[in-house]
């Protein structure tokens, strides 16, 4: 009987510890879209403290895109639990000069042909500014020879 009580206490402690661990996690909404014109958009939204909130953030972001760009491919939409995973999601563009839109709550990394990527970056930043959001298009760092 004593062993059973110890086992039950241990299980209760492990459940409480697991709940604290899950509650202590943070989740970063990360999506990647491919457009039919050869551009790729990788978005990183602000971190949330709940997985459901992260999934909802991805859904809110993707909903208008699904409606307006039927030919766009959602490469992935996921909730990353740590910064290293977010960096991994960006790893294939990290060394490539690319345009970025930065705004409160979101960063959008745009890869593809230079002229359309630059135009799209500037357009998105200007449109967000018209809607009252502080945003900017960050051009890729120039390579030094």
Describe the fold and architecture.
The chain has 145 residues and is of the alpha+beta class. It has one domain. Helices cover 48% and strands 24% of the residues. It has 4 helices and 6 strands, in the order H-E-E-H-E-H-E-E-H-E. It has a 6-stranded antiparallel β-sheet, sandwiched between helices.
- Gross morphology is globular
- Succession of helices and strands: HEEHEHEEHE
Identify the strand order in the major beta sheet: 3-1-2-5-4-6
Give the structural class: alpha+beta
Number of domains: 1
Strand content: 15-25%
Average pLDDT, all residues: 81
**CA-based gyration radius:** 20 Å
Helix tally equals 4
Low-confidence regions:
none
How many beta-strand segments?
A: 6
What are its keywords?
145 residues; alpha+beta; 6-stranded antiparallel β-sheet
Question: Any chance you could write out the topology, listing elements then pairs?
Answer:
Layout: H1 2-23, E1 28-34, E2 40-45, H2 51-68, E3 73-80, H3 83-94, E4 99-103, E5 106-111, H4 114-130, E6 136-138
Antiparallel strand pairs: 1-2, 1-3, 2-5, 4-5, 4-6
């Amino acid at each position: 009987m004593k062993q059973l009580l110890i086992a039950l206490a241990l299980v209760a402690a492990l459940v409480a510890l697991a709940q604290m661990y899950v509650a202590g996690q943070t989740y970063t909404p990360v999506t990647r879209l491919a457009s039919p014109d050869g551009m790729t958009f990788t978005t990183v939204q602000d971190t949330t403290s709940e997985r459901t909130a992260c999934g909802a953030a991805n859904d809110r972001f993707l909903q208008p895109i699904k409606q307006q760009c039927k030919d766009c491919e959602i490469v992935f939409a996921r909730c990353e639990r740590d910064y290293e995973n977010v960096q991994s999601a960006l790893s294939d563009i990290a060394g490539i000069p690319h345009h970025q839109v930065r705004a409160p709550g979101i960063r959008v990394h745009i890869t593809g042909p230079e002229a359309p990527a630059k135009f799209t970056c500037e357009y998105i930043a200007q449109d967000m500014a018209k809607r009252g959001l502080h945003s900017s298009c960050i051009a890729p760092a120039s390579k030094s020879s």
